[in-house]
Amino acid sequence: MINDMTKGNPLKLIILFSVPLLIGNIFQQLYNIADIVIVGRTLGMNALAAVGAISPIFFFLTFVVVGLTNGFAVITGQRFGAKDPEGVRLSTTVSTVWSTGFTILFSALLALFMHTILRWMNVPAEIYKDAFYYIQIVIAGLVVVNIYNLIASIVRALGDSKTPLYFLIFASVLNIFLALLFILKFGWGVPGSAVAVVLSQGVSALMCIIYVKIKFPILHLKKADWGYALKKESFDFALEHLRVGIPMSVQYSILGIGILIIQSVCNTFGPDVIAAFTAALRIEQIATLPMISFGVALAAYTAQNFGAKNFSRIKEGVNKASVINITLSLIMAFIMHFFGSDIVAVFLGKGEKHIIEIARSYLWISTIFYFFLGQIFIFRNALQGMGEAVLPLAASIAELIMRAFAAVYLAVKFGYYGIFYAGPIAWINASSIMAAGYYANLLKIAKKARISYKVKHTSF
Asked: Could you give the angle at the alpha carbon of 442 between the alpha carbons of 82 and 15, nearest 5°?
């Protein structure tokens, strides 16, 4: 259902929009949780380490695709907010053509150089084979990841956060069933888990396509719309999408590169540390989902109101969402600080006491700094909803530099415990930059509005 977010109570709109997103994000994480629990409990710690050692590559791939599609959808949301249905359709076709072409090229390059990437990541020899086959299967299915995320981001830009959720829930359950089938029944081992991920995501993409065709008249694309996307005249419109999509994709990929660097350092400490770090990161990803969901909801809300030139509503929505996110960060920190060990045991089993202790240490350190992480999601998504891509990109580069420096330098000084401080140091740095950028952007918008008002009301 399409939802106009330019009218009504901002906080109520953002909360109602974010709840389905939160549920959807939880089920999205079930893809990775299923890998961890099923692989770890049925195939052992080395198999778990194989999935964990290359999971940052999986996140990196997803980040690149999600960043590009979310960036394109910002333009779609702005066209919708401006009450331009033709612009919405043309934005959809341009986004589809460019994102699909990029994904195919990107997948081919990654598959070609994967051995080099795994060697650079210091993947241990005893888990190398499983890690290689797992990630190659995931790369082969990257195009369906693009299709689902593109449709989901466009639908969310129109104010509907529920539709993609239903298919994601079904696909998440299907993923668990297929993983168990391929691993336990067919004996495919770690690669079987990757096949389950790709097939279930393909199903969610197909279901989204069918549903949109039936229920979203505004997205009923015409032959002329597709023809426009392939003509030279569409290049300026495509550039408008790329000016937001590429920096956002680069920004997301920088986050992925930061995780890759940390994982490459972590891999030098052996399978036990890899397994502990993998479990702890999965738990942290679940803990931060409410904050992420609020951020995504705010991006859709901001994009529509920016298109409608309702700048005061943007400020009101950001302020209220920021207070909610601060509260959420404190609640999540409390839960992870006192119950993190018990949650880790669900992933690894109570017999793996040494690994549980390592994972618990990471959670105790990182949860203290969730406040800064929560503000990153607020300010970054608000800026992106306004079409501002440079400041979030600059903050992401700064975050990458701090994360990489902290991971390498502190690991030398303090061992794997040093790695645990890399994320918090990066969060503090990035949140400070994005907060300053957001308020500077508000001042710039206010200045333009005053100039426009004076020009409009000056008599000659």
From this structure: 65
Q: Residue 171 and residue 283: Cα distance in Å, rounded?
A: 21
Q: What is the pLDDT of residues 356-366, one digit of tens each?
A: 888 888 888 88
Q: Where are the domains of the chain?
A: 11-447
Predicted confidence (pLDDT) per residue in 47-61, tens digit: 877 887 777 787 788
Residues 306-333 have a mean pLDDT of 82
Return the number of other C-beta atoms located less than 10 Å from residue 312's C-beta: 12
Say what the pLDDT of residue 460 is: 38
Note the pTM of the prediction, 2 decimals: 0.68
Radius of gyration of the chain (CA): 22
Q: Name the residue among 386, 136, 403, 367 with its Cα closest to residue 244.
A: 386
Residue 215 has pLDDT above 50, yes or no: yes
Place of tokens 């079930």: 30
The first and second tokens of residue 60, run together, are: 């990196």
- With a cut of 70, say whether residue 456 has pLDDT above it: no
CB 261 within 8 A of CB 133: no
Please check whether residue 144 is in contact with residue 104, taking contact to mean a CB–CB distance below 8 angstroms.
no
Residue 452 has pLDDT above 60, yes or no: no
Q: 136 pLDDT exceeds 90?
A: yes
d(C-alpha 281, C-alpha 52), whole Å: 10
Contacts of 253 (CB under 8 A, 6+ apart): 60, 63, 64, 67
The rounded distance, in Å, linking the Cα atoms of 61 and 194 is 14
Task: Give every CB contact of residue 163 below 8 A, 6+ residues apart in sequence.
Answer: 1, 155, 208, 211, 212, 215
C-alpha to C-alpha distance for 176 and 36, rounded to whole angstroms: 11
